[in-house]
Amino acid sequence: MVGGDATIQRVSLDKAFHLLAENLRERSELKFIEHLTKLLSELLRADHVMVSEIFETDIARAHVVSFYSRGSHLQANSYDLHGSPCETVISTGSCVYSEGVCKTFPNDEMLQQLGAESYVGVPMLTVDGNKLGLLAILNDQPTDYSNEVLELLQVAASQAAAEMAQVRITNRLKESQRRLQTLMDSLPGMAYRCKNDAYWSMEMVSRGARDLTGYDPAGLQDNATIAYVDLIHPEDKEKVEAKVREAIENDRYFKLNYRIIRADGALRWVWEQGKGVRSEAGEVTHLEGFVLDVTEQYLHQERITEIAFTDELTGLPNRPALLDFLQREYAREQAPDYLLVLIDIRGFRNINERFGLHAGDRLLRIVAARLQEGIRAMENTVLLARLTGDEFVVVSSQQGAGIEDFLELADMLTQLFTNPVSMGEHQLPLQLKMSGAWSSAASSAAQLLQQASIAMYEAKQNGLRYCTFDTDLERKVSSERHRTERFLMALANHELNIHLQPQIELNSGRCTGAEVLCRWFDNELGAVPPDIFIDIARKQGVLAELGYQVLEKTCALINEWRDSYESVPPISVNVGAQQFASKDVVDDFVRVCGQLPPQAITLEITESDLMIDPKQALEVTKRLRGMGFKLAIDDFGTGYSSLSYLQQFDLDILKIDMTFVQAMSRDEQSRTLVNTILVMAKTLGLETIAEGIETEEQAMMLQQLGCEFGQGFYYARPLPAKEFEKQWLQH
Predict the structure, then answer these.
(1) Hey, which residues does 118 pair with through a beta bridge?
(2) Which H/E stretch holds residue 329?
(3) What is residue 333's three-state secondary structure?
(4) How high is the mean pLDDT of the chain?
(5) Which strand (E) or helix (H) includes residue 96?
């Protein structure tokens, strides 16, 4: 069985209908059946899916219409029904063999070639109960076929049967004129020949006209009782006439669905296919075709569409429904006037984690109910939908809407959640974030939704309750997107560079080390600040890749310097949290450093990154020290690590954050804090490096407090490798 699972996964019928509607709605005839076999194989994880056709002229053989096996369509062929499970399907109806089907039917050659273990088959029936063939699912392993799977196969078989019936009807229409009358009378529905006049005056109709229209065939001929065109629903008449006219102009068949009103007043959906008939002079004088009653199929399709366009959890329209509505509005009018408000529940993830997913689902249903109840009293609201997760959308019809309209609607929506939501014993206050976008400023439904999403992202990034999309935001987002693309390209091409800032022994002024800092100069953007491109790397999930590139460049530089100088001070490289979170971090560091002695590298990780997962950090730092690397904790004092953890981490160096260093001279409390850190580091046997030294006064104070090393603009700004080498190594 595909995926190695011994039992077909239970499938939700509603979700299955959703997939059928989403993937097969526009397909037709044999293409439909081919795609259906593939979709069923994927949906049910089935190794083989087969649709076979049975002809009345040869009921002992089945003709394969589509055979999808192990990921591809096989060539169609025919096989004997005798001695096969398919014979049981045709003779008695659905049959299921959960296991041992090959042993049960040893004379079925195709079955033996496949080596199938399990089998389920259902017949394909016409609307009047005739058997057109069968749909079968086979698996290489024993499989428990649930009632839900059988129900799904029956629905799929009925769809395939409907398509196959249409194929057969079409083929029969191509038979010779000599057999036309017999064929017409045997067809379901009504076959006809009519004049190409304003009334489509019938010259000939089949006996099926009575069942289809409720009128006697003679009453339709020559418009004796009523003209067929007058049976067409008034709302559909213009569409039907336009489709027929278009087909005539292009000399092709017309195929269309529309409604008719029967003699008894009942409304029925029909499907018609026909073609214009030209005279010797080339003029289309007549139309010939047939009309089928497809009411049941249409209602079934409506049900599928309803499922496809409805959110299962809340019962609201879903994202496809929202896009369908907006797309129709854009098709109707180039710049429709709608205000789209995107709603996000703040802290929803925390609620899920705290109370569980069932509580989260209950909360979403409560939110949906409050919104649904609230917008009934609001003017101009035309649609409420749930997009996904905790995001909802309200669409309001607003002529020339502006910021004031958005704020008014957003405030009204906020008022719906003044009262907290009860979650068991807890009363949870709900806060919403909202963004707005205007359909008149977008060219499509997808773009409108994207603009609202961009505004929501901006609101989340900047802690705003409300945010609307405008040209300034568009430029900002476009600029950020362009900068991100440029950065990812630079990273892929290894175009980022490293600079070095010396680390100075405070007592002697001697350079005893250096910290590597990454720099990015872009030919188009110029020098991009590190905090910007590092934030891009973090958001794009490539911070680890950036870190390893910096380490690779650093190792190459140290190797180059070791060939030229007797003594090269240790070089510090920053390690990101994404690197530290990897299980292979130690092996990766050893691999990148190659033959370089680990003592030549000092790995720096910030205190806050260490505290993301202290247990993982303890294990990694211990292994790195065992490999010979020196370790430094960066920005100490900002990450709220406990002394007990600090004692457990296998560290060498403690770096004092620059904010404390720069506040020392004007803030006694900061001076006391720095002194406390220095005393603690000395007690733990750690070296200390003060960051961000900018003045002589700061350097003197640190020296007096017992700090050993420092770095900052007072000594040197970060320098390119060549300049650092010239200034600090060649002396």
Answers:
(1) 139
(2) helix 319-332
(3) coil
(4) 86
(5) strand 95-97
Partners of 426 in the β-ladder = 423
Q: What is the b/e burial string over 483-510, where b = at least 16 CB atoms within 10 angstroms of the residue's CB?
A: beebbeebbeeeebebbbbbbbebeeee
Residue where the block lists tokens 């958005």: 406
- Between CA 455 and CA 464, with CA 460 as vertex, the angle to 5 degrees is 80
**719-730 pLDDT, tens per residue?**
999 999 999 987
Structure tokens at 368: 């949906």
The 3-class SS string of 355-375 reads HCHHHHHHHHHHHHHHHHHHH
- The count of C-alpha atoms lying within 13 angstroms of the C-alpha of 20, restricted to the half-sphere facing its C-beta, is 28
Q: Is the pLDDT of residue 390 over 60?
A: yes
**Residue 189 in contact with residue 172, Cβ under 8 Å?**
no
pLDDT tens digits, one per residue of 46-59: 999 999 999 888 88
479: number of Cβ within 10 Å: 11
Q: Is this model's pTM higher than 0.70 or not?
A: no
Instruction: Note the pLDDT of residue 592.
Output: 87
Measured between alpha carbons, how far is 265 from 402 in angstroms, rounded to an integer?
48
The number of CA neighbours under 13 Å toward the Cβ of 113 is: 7
List pLDDT tens digits, range 109-123.
889 999 999 999 999
How confident is the model over 303-310, as a mean pLDDT?
A: 76
Strands 432-438 and 466-468: parallel
Pair type for strands 78-80 and 95-97:
unpaired
Q: Closest by alpha carbon to 196, among 277, 270, 273?
A: 277
Res. 183 pLDDT band, cuts 50 70 90: low
Residues 6+ positions from 78 with CB-CB distance below 8 Å: 61, 62, 63, 64
- Say how far apart CA 565 and CA 556 lie, in whole Å: 14
Amino acid at 590: V
Number of H helices, E strands in the chain: 28, 29
Q: Which residues pair with 515 in a beta bridge?
A: 501, 572
- For residue 60 the two structure tokens come to 């002992």
* Cα 645 from chain centre: 41
Q: At what angle do helices 357-375 and 403-415 cross, to 10 degrees?
A: 120
Planar angle of CA 248, 252, 257, nearest 5 degrees: 85
Q: 337 near 346, Cβ under 8 Å?
A: no
64-68, 352-356, 593-597: segment of lowest average pLDDT: 352-356
Contact criterion met (CB below 8 Å) for 588 and 550: no
- Cβ atoms of 599 and 570 within 8 Å: the answer is yes
Residue in the structure block whose two tokens are 């509603």: 14
560-584 residue pLDDT tens: 999 999 889 999 999 877 777 777 8
Residues 343 and 395: beta-carbon distance below 8 Å: no
Cβ atoms of 202 and 298 within 8 Å: the answer is no
Q: Does 236 score more than 80 pLDDT?
A: yes
- Distance from C-alpha of 547 to C-alpha of 554, rounded to nearest angstrom: 11
Domains and CATH numbers, the chain: 2-164 (3.30.450.40), 177-299 (3.30.450.20), 309-469 (3.30.70.270), 502-517+553-729 (3.20.20.450)
Give backbone dihedrals phi and psi of 71, rounded to 5 degrees, phi first. 95, 5
